[in-house]
Queue: 3 jobs
Job 1
Amino acid sequence: RALDRSLAVGAHGLPLMGSGDWNDGMNRVGNQGRGESVWVGWFLYTTLEGFAPFCDERKQKTLGNRYRKHMLRLKKALEDKAWDGDWYRRAYFDDGTPLGSAQNEECRIDSIVQSWGVISGAADEHRAIRAMAAVEEYLIRWGDGLVILFTPPFDKSALDPGYIKGYVPGVRENGGQYTHAAIWTLIAYALLGDGDRAGELFALLNPISHASTRAGLHKYKVEPYVAAGDVYAVWPHTGRGGWTWYTGSAGWMYRAALESILGFKLEGERLRIEPCVPRAWREFEINYRRGATHYHIKVANPLGLNRGVSEVWLDEARLPTDDIPLVADGKTHRIQIVLGERQPAPTGQEIL
């Protein structure tokens, strides 16, 4: 029922935003029932794509096909109405005014619509790359060690997006680093195959990095061993951590490291290792316990690549595909992955 309620669209064919979406501080963008959220468009596309197969399995193919048709309409609307020329817009107000556009004085570019264009897989490939280049140019502040949510922050313009404008510019959701969203930026770069950038962003977002120097620790002022929900991006508090022990950011950071960078992807009784790592990483290891069975995974990167799997070995046998079958025999198994261009396995070595 929740999905069915989410299918309503506004004048641009995009999902209605109501009194806020992921950024609940934007509670007056669509509170009159006409405003639209571009981010919800990407998120809904992803949700429908994952849910439609379950409809088929439950013999509700009519419903599954309805969702797939909505996905097609949604994808067209996102490309036709949400593209701003160099990045995707964030939303439309009730009166049709765009938000997250080059024509705005404040909140000209927002990170989560760019990253979710990539994460959803729905954005045009060339536009997705261009949008993430804009994120790098405007939202990643390497010198300050920040990935800010949007820029410029809300302050004095006539736009009234909601209570977000009550925050000091550059703090929390109002143009500070909101770590939850910053990690989505990292994941997007990994999905684009840029393991070097993904690795750099993970190092930047890792809270322990703030304790690498005495000056950094005094600037950060909060625990460097747990995830911070936000980091300030306004002088004189630039780089100061906000509220900590934020499980939302911690969970996404763990997934970003394990799934997006190390490439550990568990699907039922099968495992895939599809890394996207910095080229300087020549190898890494993962120890995985599944019940009483242990798997020692070693990944070699002899050519210094970002991604691409050439060989997969389970114990002494080379597998014909990247799918690794998992068993519950209580033993210890060895998995070896070699990055490179896929080559056919020699006859007689495959597991069929």
Job 2
Amino acid sequence: MKPETVRIRIFALALVALVALSGCGKKTRPVPPDTVMPAPISDLSYQLDEKGVTLNWSYPRATVQGDRLPYRIEKFELLRAVIPVKDYCADCPIPFGPSIEIRAESSDKGKVFYEETLLRPNHRYVYRVRSKAGWFVSSDDSNTVSVVWDTPLLAPLNFTVEESDKAITLRWQAPAGLLDGTPVSDPIRYQVFRSTDGGETFTEMPGGLSEGLTFTDKGLRNGKAYVYKVRAMRLHAETMAAGMTSEPLSATPRDLTPPAPPQKVHAVASGTGVKILWETVAEPDLAGFRIYRRAAKSATPEPIGQVDGAGLSFEDAKPPKERGLWYYSVTAFDQARPANESTYSMEATYEVAE
């Protein structure tokens, strides 16, 4: 080898060494890969409805060491296996197919959702998910979710709502069978949903699934509209399979408790008629009073006037002229719509002598 060639090679090696040593101008300790890897997702869960399955999990925020992630998760890889129920083996390796890439977008609540429809009846679906940031940064697999999909139940029959004071009672009957007409032998439970915004959004009622065919929602606000729907669920192959949902029904709880009747009713002659007086009623939602009159030979009082608010007297400007005894009574009514009216008060007697 010529001396000139040797000198050129030595110079090149020295230059490479110099560049490697200089770097960015500052040396740092090597970072173990595990300290920056995202922690595996641990809360993968699902929700079944008549359309299919919706998976959800929390958006990753920390590394496997518990530190805050120094980068943004770019995507998720969903692992999915589809196995006929008759071929499923709990102890066998899971035959996952090609992964499904999901763009990393989190909701306002830090949750990621993925919906899958057009599922095959009598098939088990097994899922896992992992997060990725770039080509080489990937978390370990999440927890495993396994669900069985089958033909959905029909909706519950004869769904009705009954309004009462600060409560609404729902009633329904069991569905006739599956969507394809097949009878059902599996245990059936029911899921109740309520909307407080006119049916725009529904949330499941607390307390879990119901075995019965009635549900009473208590502690409601009178005069406010609530919308309900019910879904049938069946326990099939160790999975709660969702069925069709009933048509939503709206109901408004209302005050059904009438006020107490007025006390100490009197009827006295005045220069212009007959004046009826009574004592007030201690009711927070009192709206007024109604005055009634009946003849001695009549069993039913007839209304002759109304006093709104807290007034405690009424003048019968057209008193009876027929001789004999006449009877006046007063009721109280509240602010409910329609109003609740008390029973009649004790009657006050007025006699027409001539």
Job 3
Amino acid sequence: MTRVVSVTRLGVRRDKRTFQIAASMSRRGFQSAVVEGERSSLDREDLPFDLITVEGAEPLRAPDAGDGDGPEAVTESARRAGSLAHRVASRVLAPRTLRRLFLADNELTYRALPDADLYYLTCFWQFPAVWRKCRENGARFVYDANDAYWLWPGYAWYPRLFRAYLRLIERRCVRRAAGFVTVSEGVAALLEERYGRRPDVVRNMHDLRMDEESDVDVRAAAGLGESDFAVVIVGNEKPSDAVEEPIRALGELPDRVHLVCLGAGYDKHLPLARELGVSERVHVIPPVPPVHVTSAIRSADACLVNIRSGDVHRFALPTRFFSAVAAGLPVLHPPLPEVRA
């Protein structure tokens, strides 16, 4: 039987696109597996695919702009010192440290990868590991560029030399991929301009066949009554999401309007809600598996797609939009051309 292995740097619980692709491969009769870079708290026996977690991996990520954490912190004191020697050390040593961590992460990914006929790669960061496996086994791979990664706000945090290295890695990934896809026409145009190859577009459509009833109902979980107006935000909080703005907006809206955040990472915004006196109208609900999202949010009155419309996100067509449509909810969204289309 043909084996297809999907590879994601995230936990598959919070990577709905990879989850749906792997499930679709299984439904088509392929032996499907997912190699995830973060451990997901899912019942593996209930999944439509095999799930393998990279042991010991600590994915190398760009922090938010202005965040001092991360591998480059080894040179933070040198930058503050401000001497020419320290500034040179910061520019030279930090890229080397990052590259070493990048390659170590790929080595761990390589060890976790099973043999396959086809690999489905969702981020170029794991390209070295996947390409090594392809050469060993005569396999091929598809590169699914979920974003124009170089436009992400945190990407500029990396030193210039390391960003150049990452661009080389993604260029090789694009050129060697047997198939090349992305999420929207806007992102496809950006990738073609940068790498000279236009990807096919596979949108983040919701697969209703995967939906299951959830034990979580956002209205009930938030303790809201029928007269309350529940606006739900779906998905784990990301640095580029607008969360502070809707919390502030509650102060200008009737008391019966509530904001319900379904996912991880929203707790850090609760102090602002208390400061503004709207804490009783902001509710944080823990994440649910991707197959339970539609059922969980169906009782809300509207869904807020809270992606900021600047930088790369102006071309976004996010999975949370399709989740809202699948649940039959009205959608509040920023001026995103792909959504308007």
